[in-house]
Design goal:
Elements (H helix, E strand, L loop, with lengths): L3 E7 L3 E7 L5 E8 L11 E2 L1 H19 L6 E8 L5 E4 L9 E2 L7 H9 L3 H8 L8 H11 L3 H6 L3 E4 L1 H9 L6 E3 H4 L5 E2 L4 E2 L1 H7 L8 E3 L10 H4 L5 E6 H8 L8 E5 L3 E8 L10 E8 L2 E10 L3 H11 L7 H7 L8 E3 L17 E3 L7 H26 L7 E5 L6 H11 L2 E5 L4 H14 L5 H6 L3 E5 L5 H18 L4
Helix pairs in contact: 1-6, 10-15, 11-13, 12-13, 13-14
The structure holds adenosine-5'-diphosphate (ADP) and SN-glycerol-3-phosphate.
Adenosine-5'-diphosphate binds next to helix 11 and helix 12.
Length: about 500
């Protein structure tokens, strides 16, 4: 049997498909961006048909550029933007509403009401999450309550819910498989991550009928095979994981205490906590990192909503750069002495603040402030937000602050940002050779399940360093800057 694996990485801004060979080398790559829709303040939607179309096109392109045909590929691994919610008609496979994206805040009021009723401790105890519009449950209920006739159709069992992995699985298998994996289930607010099952109390609380839900499988498991018409031959799907979890696997963070941080649209830091459910005292999330052979491995996660998205805003909103990579050049030319601080709370603030109503602000602008200082403050905001996450992780996790941080995601291409990150964190930042870490993690899950890729230890030994960024900022300067960042955040938070 061949050992080529096709990984599908359906992200927030683009769909990618990567063909890996047995030594984890990339031999084929396809990528397609798609439209983002912001219908109201704090709302973010995708067209599910765009997600589907771009995935299929990216896969076809990746297979073609690899020089292989579908029958040469041993298995597919799927990884996806998490929490994003799609509800579709089981008969036609057609979504009844746009995908409500993880960043979307339209259910903030509902979450606040549940919070005011004192329900967060119960919800956190079961799910490891918080009552925030980020997660899927209130998004599902919103669709059922706002699409005419949807509740009745749901009651009759005619509708299906899925996060993006589930929707893609449904489409790829021609409607034969309605399933997800434990990592994606763990982001819905409906799944008890200690018991490993959908929870009736939570289903009642969020008013979501059980008939909508997919079956939950391991992350390395059999998920059916693709419709032969799609790629010319059926391909078995053997791995599924949320993208942050897949990056944790792709960075080979298999040991408790190992930590990675991914910089895509948002930034997500995850520390492996082994078989322990560690309840955060610092408003981090407890989640499933991966589930193999029926055994969940847990993680603590810090989630921030805006990382690379701030660079997109410099490009598409302000128009001060044409391409993302110009942000680092601008920042490097900025006046170091201007104390400009940018809190990019475009869709509220995530960990550790969890303020869905906060909106972005830039502080310290003077007549001398130019696009350079704004770009610098934008890139630095991603570093400061990581400082807040790592501080919270260090308080929750017994071994304290990490000495090094493995990074990945589109934004880590920026050397300027990575050096600044090392400086402001006072931690060594390690960027791997394989930057397609998320896809690699999904590929490993599928390849391992298919029996054509090695086990965890051998896979870990293949991790290779590209660049190490060593911290070089004086402690007094670092603490002063972090304090000023926190003042800026304090002025952005809404009083509740
Ligand atoms: N050289 C760069 N400097 C700064 N940001 C970058 C650079 N290259 C890409 N990015 C940012 O990385 C993000 C894309 O990363 P990716 O991991 O593909 O995200 P996602 O999975 O969320 O779609 C974009 O928001 C983009 O602005
Ligand atoms: O698509 P990304 O890489 O921005 O990741 C999105 C996260 O999965 C949201 O939880």
């Amino acid at each position: 049997m061949s050992s080529y694996i096709l990984a599908i990485d359906q992200g927030t801004t683009s769909s990618r498909a990567v063909v890996f060979d047995a030594s984890c080398g990339v031999i084929g790559l396809g990528q397609q961006e798609f439209a983002q829709s912001f219908p109201k303040s704090g709302w973010v939607e995708h067209d599910p048909e765009d997600l589907w179309r771009t995935v299929v096109e990216a896969c076809r392109y990746a297979i073609a550029t690899s020089g292989l045909s579908a029958s040469d590929i041993a298995a597919i691994g799927i990884t996806n933007q998490r929490e994003t919610t799609i509800v579709w008609d089981r008969q036609s496979g057609v979504p009844i509403h746009a995908a409500i994206v993880w960043q979307d805040r339209r259910t903030a009021e509902r979450c606040r009401a549940l919070n005011d009723d004192g329900l967060e401790p119960m919800v956190s105890e079961k799910t490891g999450l918080l009552l925030d519009p980020y997660f899927s449950a209130t998004k599902i209920a919103w669709i059922l309550d706002n699409v005419e006739g949807a509740r009745a159709r749901a009651k009759e069992g005619r509708l299906a819910f899925g996060t993006v992995d589930t929707f893609l699985l449904w489409r790829l298998t021609g409607g034969r498989v309605h399933a997800t994996d434990a990592t994606n289930a763990s982001r819905t607010l409906l799944y008890d991550i200690r018991k490993g099952s959908w929870d009736d109390d939570l289903l009642r609380l969020f008013d979501v009928p059980r008939s909508l839900l997919p079956e939950v499988r391991d992350s390395a498991a059999d998920f059916g095979e693709t419709d032969p018409d799609l790629f010319g031959a059926p391909i078995a799907i053997r791995g599924v994981a949320g993208d942050q979890q897949a990056a944790t696997v792709g960075q080979a963070c298999f040991e408790p205490g190992m930590i990675k941080s991914t910089y895509g649209t948002g930034c997500f830091a995850m520390v492996n906590t082994g078989d322990r459910f560690v309840a955060s005292q610092n408003r981090l999330l407890t989640t499933i990192a991966y589930q193999i052979d029926g055994r969940p491995t847990y993680a603590l996660e810090g989630s921030i909503f805006i990382a690379g998205a701030v660079v997109q805003w410099l490009r598409d909103g302000l128009g001060i750069i044409d391409r993302s990579e110009q942000s680092g050049t601008l920042a490097a030319a900025a006046d170091q002495d201007q104390g400009v601080f940018f809190v990019p709370a475009f869709t509220g603030l995530g960990a550790p603040w969890w303020d869905p109503d906060a909106r972005g602000a830039i502080f310290g602008i003077t007549r001398g402030t130019t696009a350079r200082e704004i770009a610098r403050a934008a890139l630095e905001s991603v570093c400061y937000q990581t400082v807040d996450l790592i501080d919270a992780i260090a308080k929750d996790w017994p071994s304290g602050a990490p000495r090094s941080l493995r990074v990945d995601g589109g934004m880590v291409a920026s050397d300027w940002t990575m050096q600044r990150l090392a400086d402001l964190l006072d931690v060594t930042v390690e960027r791997p050779v394989v930057m397609e870490t998320t896809a690699l993690g999904a590929a490993w899950l599928a390849g391992y399940r298919a029996g054509v890729w090695p086990g965890q230890r051998e896979f870990s030994e293949r991790w290779r360093l590209d660049t190490r960024f060593e911290p070089s900022m004086e402690m007094t300067e670092r603490l002063d800057r972090v304090n000023r960042w926190r003042e800026a955040v304090g002025r952005t938070l809404t009083a509740r």
